[in-house]
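[step 3/7] fold_predict: job queued, chain A
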Amino acid sequence: ACRAAVWARRPGIEISTEADLLLASIVLRLGLRMGVLSPSAEDAFDSFAHFTRQQVNLQKEVDLLCQVRSALCSLRQRGMDAAAQVSLPRPIGHAQLEVA
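[step 4/7] structure written:
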């Protein structure tokens, strides 16, 4: 059987991440108003926040897993036995599904 590494995600991480980004944004804006930070810090933070939100949003990975699962099912239907032993994780909150 094939094995794959799967990220485990802590429940509620989206809310915690958004709260952390909001707090950091407030501190950043205070730093800008006090003149201890330059405007480029705001641009850097916006890029960081965008990247962080993309990493927390796993919809892209869920879509990719569904495409891989579909491709493996297609291989199995065409008689390719290698696909028969592959187990793909379900999106968070679901039990693993054997590709049949």
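[step 5/7] annotate
The radius of gyration is 21 Å.
The chain is about 60% helix and 5% strand.
exit 0
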